[in-house]
Amino acid sequence: MLNSNSTLSAFVRQNTSLQRVKRPDRGRARDWRIHTMRVACLLERFAGCRSRATGTIATAPTPCYAPTFPTTQRARLLRHFRRYAFLLARLGAAAMLPNPSAAVAEIPFTLTSNDVAANQSVPLSLVFDQEGCTGGNRSPQLSWHGAPAATRSFAITIFDPDAPGRGWWHWAVADIPATVTQIPGNASASGMLRKMGAVESRNDFEIDGYGGPCPPPGKPHRYVITLYALDSASLDVSQGRPALIFEHEIRTAALATTQLIVTYGR
Q1: Burial code of 134-145, b = ≥16 C-beta within 10 A, e = fewer?
Q2: Interval 167-198: pLDDT, tens
Q3: What does DSSP say about strands 221-230 and 199-200: parallel, antiparallel, or unpaired?
Q4: What is the CATH number of domain 110-264?
Q5: Of 19, 130, 165, 200, which one is least surrounded by beta carbons within 10 A?
């Protein structure tokens, strides 16, 4: 029980702040604490007034209201009370609603590799084995997580944007099943991708499958490894089609992408 008119407002003032919210739409909205304070004050004026005779909270509201508030003022205060009480109830209900984004944190779509690291040089085992290069030409191991729930398949491309002209396609593979979350190293040459139902393009070395980095001597080139989550289980492409055609079909069906950029120079 409250034993004075000031108890409720003292509690609210002690636990709330009357500062305005700093928002771009400044002036249109105030902090909900101000509305809480107003409702608290109205409650006191209606139900917490003192009895002049005893100095305690009146047991019946009518004797207390009558000498203090005229009828028109009571009606006006009642309208304000209802308005702010309704607003407070809406604010409280909104605060109690579950927030799905807070309850289940969204996992970002991420691509990683045991063979290469972001912005680091490609190891010799992944470098091309022709055109003056003496690498192992093994496709990289890749792992991913956080794909959209609607994903029906994956696709992977490797592109060199620093090559002369329009760039250079080193790899494009599509129709990787949605249940797959990683591919092992050398999955292209070993036939692993074909066994899982995936198809590979013809790269710009005019070879089906993976062709590793082999830039001309000079400044290192960037190699963009892109993983696509697709909304289609199978694209309208077949083994050995040009990588540029693969890339067009892949982009048409893409739900989300994630990239890993590496370098190589000689």
Answers
A1: ebebbbbbbebe
A2: 999 999 999 999 999 999 999 999 999 999 99
A3: unpaired
A4: 3.90.280.10
A5: 165
